[in-house]
Amino acid sequence: MAQLPKVYLRELSLDDTDDRYQWCLDREVTKHLNMPDRYPPFSREETHTWIEMCINKTNGYEQKAILAEDGKHIGWIDLKNIDRLNKHAELGIAIGDKNYWGRGYGLSAMHEMLHWGFKYLDLNKIWLRVEVDNDKAIKSYKKMGYVDEGVLRQDRFRNGEYVDRLRMSILKEEFFR
After folding, report:
1. Closest CA to 77 of 52, 108, 98
2. Which residues pair with 128 in a beta bridge?
3. From 109's CA, which of 1, 29, 158, 170 has a CA 20 to 30 Å away?
4. Alpha-carbon distance 155 to 40, whole Å?
5. Does residue 22 carry a pLDDT above 80?
6. Residue 124: which residues within 8 A CB-CB, separation 6 or more?
7. Mean pLDDT (whole number) for 39-62
8. Cβ-based neighbour number of residue 171 at 10 Å
9. What is the 3 state secondary structure string of the chain?
């Protein structure tokens, strides 16, 4: 993989509410995110409450803020649906600041989160779901080493219709090769 930009993952803070809320107002940012089918998908208060739940670890998410090398908050990444018995979890990611799209920041953030999940949560597999028409994301996931596990038919209701999603995964042994 080519040289990627440096990113830092940090715990969320309530100061992240405004950035997150603004990103959720941008339909291009939220198109492929699993969010309520309304506009805006969340109120500022709901966004604040969600971040509080992440901070307090009461929603099952290990969610981190993504910072660019200059310290700018550019998105979020998480592990959820954590199955400690079978040692796997689902990854979710969003680069909310579109100025950082297509420049490797998502790949860098994924690399950091995968490393953290495999090393500190002792996971064996980290999987994800991605809509079949999200070509840029699929390309990024494959570049990171994810492989297709199968198609989840009509798995998301988006804009009044069902869309298929791919399930992809990466194993600990594949990541550390």
Report:
1. 108
2. 168
3. 158
4. 22
5. yes
6. 86, 87, 88, 118, 171, 172
7. 93
8. 18
9. CCCCCCEEEEECCHHHHHHHHHHHCCHHHHCCCCCCCCCCCCCHHHHHHHHHHHHHCCCCCEEEEEEECCCCEEEEEEEEEEECCCCEEEEEEEECCHHHCCCCHHHHHHHHHHHHHHHHCCCCEEEEEEECCCHHHHHHHHHHCCEEEEEEEEEEEECCEEEEEEEEEEEHHHHCC
> To the nearest whole number, what is the mean pLDDT of the chain?
94
First to last CA, the chain: 13
Tokens representing residue 15 in the block:
């100061």
**Range with lowest mean pLDDT among 5-14, 36-45, 167-176:** 36-45
Residue 33: pLDDT band (50, 70, 90) is confident
The answer to whether the CB of 131 falls within 8 A of the CB of 169 is no
pLDDT at res. 36: 72
Phi and psi torsions of 122, nearest 5° = 55, 40
Token couple for 168: 């992809």
Question: CA 83 to CA 142: how far, in whole Å?
Answer: 23
Look up residue 50 and give its two tokens. Answer: 């969600």
